[in-house]
Amino acid sequence: MISYSLKGQSALVTGANSGxxxxxxxxxxxxxxNVVVNYVVDPEAAEKVAEKIKAFGSKAMxxxxxxxxxxxVKSMFQKMYSEFGTIDILVNNxxxxxxxxxxxxxxxxxxxxxxxxxTGQFLCAREAIIEMLRRGRVPERSMACxxxxxxxxxxxxxxxxxxxxxxxxxxxxxxxxxxxxxxxxDRGIRVNSICPGAIQTPINKAAWSTPQALASLMTLIPYNRxxxxxxxxxxxxxxxxxASDYITGASMFIDGGMTVFEGFAEGG
Length: 268
Ligand code: BGC
Known about the structure:
There is one protein chain. It is globular and about 55 Å long. It has helices at 19-30, 43-54, 70-84, 107-135, 164-184, 211-218, 229-240; strands at residues 10-13, 34-39, 60-64, 89-92, 146-151, 189-196, 251-254. By secondary structure, it is an alpha/beta fold. The chain has a seven-stranded parallel sheet with strand order 3-2-1-4-5-6-7, sandwiched between helices. Residues 97, 153-155, 197-198, 203-204, 207 line the site of beta-D-glucopyranose. Beta-D-glucopyranose binds at residues 97, 153-155, 197-198, 203-204, 207.
């Protein structure tokens, strides 16, 4: 069987100091990659993630950057190259929500979500692809020249009232990811999306922190449990490894069945 090992590869995970990003950064480190733990605030949390990665014998460094800021993104990648030399794996994970009824949504709430969730993925992917093209394939490390994983959501296909900015950003990620996969496939760069459903993290605390909220959430999830960050990390390691070498341009839903629309089990 082909290896899941990421030994000797260099990875950057955005928004890696909490939630899904944290679990992915640790998972990549456990699989042998050297990992840049990006964060915006809370360096202590990022440092703790880096320590966990180092405990597996991989290298780790923390790097502060707001992914929607071009200058900060460029200097984060330069910092990464001076420590690790190059990039093999980019996980475009950083994302946020600024929820509001659409008729009450401010331009700041709209712009914040689009700039972090969409423009942030553009800025980081552009830096990574520039370096991957410059360097080319290194067959001893990986069959692919580079792997880019975009964090999307079930809301790239499920419309979401009260979250129009967020759903729009994730719908856009689908075309962003597929267009990149189309443009760079012949150069050996694989680009895929992970589309999580409800994963127990700070971003959706309101949906799981009371028994009533959790019970209502379960009506949307056929598999009847909330997802854990580790579920997503398992998929991210697979997508970063040669075990998934023939997968590119794919949106991979990991949602306990949320996208099979449980409401239709008895209706329609
Ligand atoms: C959102 C969560 C939500 C989940 C399922 C995610 O993309 O960030 O807040 O619980 O989708 O609706």
